[in-house]
Design brief:
single chain, 358 residues, TIM Barrel, 7-stranded parallel sheet, binds coproporphyrinogen III, lyase
Length: 358
């Protein structure tokens, strides 16, 4: 636990301030929760689209430190969120492991799929830090340029979720190839999960060495597995990463986001040792307050479709989330990434609601 002396308002000339986002992760309950949004840098912002149209591919944007820094700062300038998430993607890791990754306009990610142990043997974690050097450089720039009160978040994908993209070769509806491998050849699938898990832990540690102040592990497809498989392919690899990370950085907060985990949320929290947990859109907030937030800080969980809709529905949904979760350690967020059609005015309304300006 860090000692919080007091949290001073923006513009205060008192030098010793604690960033509200980090205070929440250290267990503080605040009068107004800090806020950031998943995918807060992206296509719903015209200034992002402007930068994006001048690069040939999405990965080029991720690997050009000046540009990655610029798009990270854009939503901070516009809305004043309490945290910036470094601009990158969960699929830079398979790229750094030696798998071919491209992003096709309008179609999403495309990877040369790996399907078995022999494909797997062509990947290696030996060069990930060299390959990911531009990400580390970008973090240095972000740290220099972010406002003092804004925290910087690093991230990676969780092994199960990253494995689905590596095996399916892109986004998927049923994860048939991934499940076939995991259920028919669990030992060889375990080799893939371990490779990704250890590389991920080292990658997250390196992000901290460059200056990120908290990390988030995105397990976007945690919710598609039966219980034994959830324990083996979601909980165990996450615990492996948390353990390895905490050995090197015991004081850096680690947020787990097992999207769709449902009734498995308590087991995930208990068994993995994450510092805080991200709630997806479907988690009832009253239940989360009683079951999860008594043990650790929670983050979430406005439905991105509600933010897109705006109006009374937005006001009411934000009101209910605040009512149920703001009496404990809490970070306001969406339950999944912001949708690209979302009007900027709805995000401004959300900021005013959460900051108590309306
Ligand atoms: C599964 C996943 C991916 N990437 C990510 C996840 C986990 C969270 C989730 O479930 O959404 C995480 C991610 N992707 C991106 C960030 C950047 C930081 C931020 O949150 O602002 C983060 C944290 C940028 C991005 N990653 C991507 C974009 C859009 C690409 C573009 O600008 O052309 C951005 C801004 C592309 C991407 N990247 C991925 C997909 C499936 C796609 C295509 C879908 C789409 O286009 O929205 C993989």
């Amino acid at each position: 636990m860090i000692k919080i002396q007091s949290i001073f308002p923006r513009g205060s000339n008192v030098t010793k301030t604690v960033k509200p986002f980090l205070a929440a992760l250290h267990g503080e309950t605040q009068a107004r929760p800090p806020i950031w949004l998943m995918r807060q840098a992206g296509r719903y912002l015209e200034e992002y689209r402007e930068v994006r149209k001048n690069v040939s591919g999405f990965l080029e944007l991720c690997y050009t430190p000046e540009l990655a820094c610029e798009v990270t700062l854009q939503p901070i300038r516009r809305f004043g969120f309490d945290a910036a998430i470094m601009f990158s993607d969960i699929l830079v890791l398979p790229d750094a492991l030696g798998q071919e990754v491209t992003f096709v306009e309008g179609e999403g990610p495309k990877l040369a799929p790996i399907r078995n142990g022999s494909d797997l043997s062509k990947l290696s974690a030996d060069w990930i830090h060299q390959r990911l050097e531009p990400v580390y450089e970008a973090i240095t720039l972000m740290k220099q340029r972010l406002p003092d009160q804004t925290a910087l978040i690093g991230f990676a994908g969780a092994p199960w979720t990253v494995a689905t993209y590596m095996i399916e070769g892109g986004s998927s509806k049923d994860f048939a190839n991934t499940k076939a491998w995991a259920f028919q050849n669990p030992n060889s699938f375990q080799d893939l999960i371990n490779l990704v898990a250890d590389a991920t832990a080292d990658y997250l540690c390196a992000q901290v060495d460059q200056g990120v102040e908290a990390v988030q592990l995105f397990d976007s497809w945690a919710g598609v597995l039966p219980e034994d498989a959830f324990a083996r392919w979601v909980i165990e690899p996450t615990k492996r990463i948390v353990d390895r990370f905490k050995q090197r950085h015991p004081d850096i907060p680690f947020i787990g986001f097992p999207r769709g985990a449902g009734i498995n949320y308590p087991a995930y929290v208990e068994a993995t040792g994450v510092t805080a947990v991200g709630l997806d859109t479907t988690v009832p907030t009253k239940w989360a307050a009683e079951t999860l937030q008594k043990k650790l800080p929670v983050q979430g969980n406005l439905d991105p479709q509600v933010l897109l809709a705006g109006g009374d529905m937005l006001d009411q949904s934000v009101g209910r989330i605040l009512e149920n979760l703001q009496d404990g350690p809490f970070i306001f967020n969406l339950g999944h990434g912001i949708i690209k059609e979302t009007p900027v005015s709805h995000v401004e309304r959300l900021m005013n609601l959460v900051r108590g300006r309306v």
